[in-house]
Amino acid sequence: MQTLIIVAHPQLAESSTQQFLRQGANLADATWRPLQAPFTLATEQAKLLSAERIIWQFPLYWYSAPAILKSWQDQVLTSEFALRQQSLAGKELGIVVTTDTKASAYQSGAAEQFTLAELLRPYQALANKLGLRWLPPFAIHQFKYQTEIQQQQLLIDYQQYLTLPQPATFEQRQQWFEQRLQQMTTRAPAMQKETLQLLGEQLATNRDNLAELRWTVEQMREDE
Amino acid sequence: MQTLIIVAHPQLAESSTQQFLRQGANLADATWRPLQAPFTLATEQAKLLSAERIIWQFPLYWYSAPAILKSWQDQVLTSEFALRQQSLAGKELGIVVTTDTKASAYQSGAAEQFTLAELLRPYQALANKLGLRWLPPFAIHQFKYQTEIQQQQLLIDYQQYLTLPQPATFEQRQQWFEQRLQQMTTRAPAMQKETLQLLGEQLATNRDNLAELRWTVEQMREDE
């Protein structure tokens, strides 16, 4: 699956969060595309057509994307292209949104009063109108305050958000890990190879055990 | 009360709806201010400071304002001005939004899936953050299909939205009419003056009758 990541950020180079995500987006099946005006309609529309999953990635400025994304929407998503031809129907739309505010502030009664799901309704309505499948938004809160381990976990979640079917099953996430491990093993220096291989075998065994357990549970249910 | 109408429309001169509203906004206590980039921060912020009610007026493009309003927000509403100084706290924020879509399309299950109130949440969240009192949005659906009488009614509603306390009581709306009638009477040619005066007296009598009726009802309640 080809994923197009449209990044809307006025100071992209200075954003440590975006630079971190950029490393994560360095995948064979993902294209990193920062927005920069002016836009060439034909190029932008062709990029959209070649993608199966479209991601709008931005920091939340005044409860919405920075102006450049709206500018891009107003210009590129013409009525002819987006509505009459329904050119994007059947594709997926995901939002990767970063905020400096903690997650718990986004609820009724808290500082921001509304959930992110509520604040992102205009994008959801747009997806609905264009026949795009709306993915659950991917929110990153206070990246700077995250520990290194939290950031590593974030990177994995982000990569899975970009490329796995959404919502991803436990098995799909597990397989994704195994594939990544295999790739790492191939590229690893000799002295690490054995450890990685053992880790891979352990993961595979876990998966087999889990599948067996699930089968047993199903049998028990049938017997009842 | 001073009302600042910030109009965000990429083709303002060509919009018959906006030109129509512009006539209505020709009031002593309202300022019509179309957005045009680039913005001078000091000028924009001074304009905001001198207003008691701020209106953002725009056609709904992709379930949000045209990009120029977001661009203005991102630039003019600096953290220093809008958050740390809370410069706009205590003022009011109203939205005048026009759409080509009929009102009934904005609900769950209908074509647009969400209500306008839901789609305008980002502006409501912004009002909340800045300490602005959020007014019920003023929506204009399919202006072109409205009859002349509907449009005249719209103009009155619009003018009242701009200048009356919100929500306006029946008495406030009535008084507003009487004031307008007095102004018209003063400026009218002699042969119309008498008719307008009679109409004014009729309105005043109605109001007195209504006040009397209300007083009677209150008395009856007290007697119970």
Automatic annotation (TrEMBL), chains A, B:
Coiled coil: none
GO molecular function: oxidoreductase activity
Enzyme superclass (EC): oxidoreductase
Entry keyword Transport: no
Classification via InterPro entries: Flavodoxin_fold, Flavoprotein-like_sf, KefG/KefF
EC numbers for this chain: 1.-.-.-, 1.6.99.-
Domain Flavodoxin-like fold: 1-161
Protein's UniProt keywords contain Aminoacyl-tRNA synthetase: no
Pfam families linked to this entry: Flavodoxin_2 (PF02525)
Keywords, comma-separated and alphabetical: Oxidoreductase
PANTHER family: GLUTATHIONE-REGULATED POTASSIUM-EFFLUX SYSTEM ANCILLARY PROTEIN KEFG
Protein name as catalogued: NAD(P)H-dependent oxidoreductase
Organism, as annotated: Loigolactobacillus zhaoyuanensis
